[in-house]
């Protein structure tokens, strides 16, 4: 599903975020990217989602090398990826239902189908009944679950999350991570970037540990 082959990433300010990173994540696997702040976790997720492109090396997503994907095809490419961010990136002037529906609206799905899928996604994250609430009326944990519902509403085969529990207390963090595990249990490939080693100890999933932009340790799939 995901393959990095000697990937380097240098940003315009000269910072080298990745230096020869290679690893594979098979379809249906769950893997944690971990390491200290600045180790390269976020850069890897940005390369998977084509928010950034590698300076050198190859990134392959679902059999396609991302260097073959033209700028105009990126929105279509991203429809196979659900993305969850630490800061939620919700539209605060829109109700929860509209936030969750956004990927389906962009994809041109019929309104009746959108309403059905939005309710199903909110039900999966335990927020059914909050459709008309505004994000700022919700707790931090609920806002994060809205972000997860938006990421999975289009039923993508790949879910990536960048420090999704960074602003949550331990109980809420565990609840959010269990949601990711539930999606993985039904076949979704899940890659989570987190520095919370104590949290991922509870899941026994594969770890890709980064240090100074390189893969320092990689546990078996």
- How many DSSP helices? 7
Distance between the termini: 13 Å
Question: Which structural category do the helix and sheet elements fall into?
Answer: alpha/beta
The domain count comes to 2
Beta-strand content: 25-35%
Order of helices and strands: EEEHEEHEHHHEHEHEE
Characterization of this structure:
It is a single chain. With 221 residues, the chain is of the alpha/beta class. It has two domains: 1-80 and 158-221, P-loop containing nucleotide triphosphate hydrolases (Rossmann fold), CATH 3.40.50.300; 89-155, no CATH class. The protein has seven helices and ten strands. The strands form two sheets. Strands 6-7-8-3-9-10 form a six-stranded mixed beta sheet, with helices on both faces. Strands 2-1-4-5 form a four-stranded antiparallel beta sheet, covered by helices on one side. Helix 3 crosses helix 4 (111-124). The model has no long low-confidence stretch (mean pLDDT 94).
Brief sketch in words of this structure:
Helix content is 32%, strand content 26%.
Features:
single chain, about 220 residues, alpha/beta, Rossmann fold, 2 domains, six-stranded mixed β-sheet, 7 helices, 10 strands, about 30% helix, globular
Chain-wise SSE layout:
Elements: E1 2-10, E2 16-25, E3 30-34, H1 41-48, E4 56-61, E5 64-65, H2 74-78, E6 81-85, H3 96-106, H4 111-124, H5 140-152, E7 158-162, H6 170-185, E8 189-193, H7 197-200, E9 206-211, E10 214-218
Parallel strand pairs: 3-8, 3-9, 6-7, 7-8
Antiparallel strand pairs: 1-2, 1-4, 4-5, 9-10
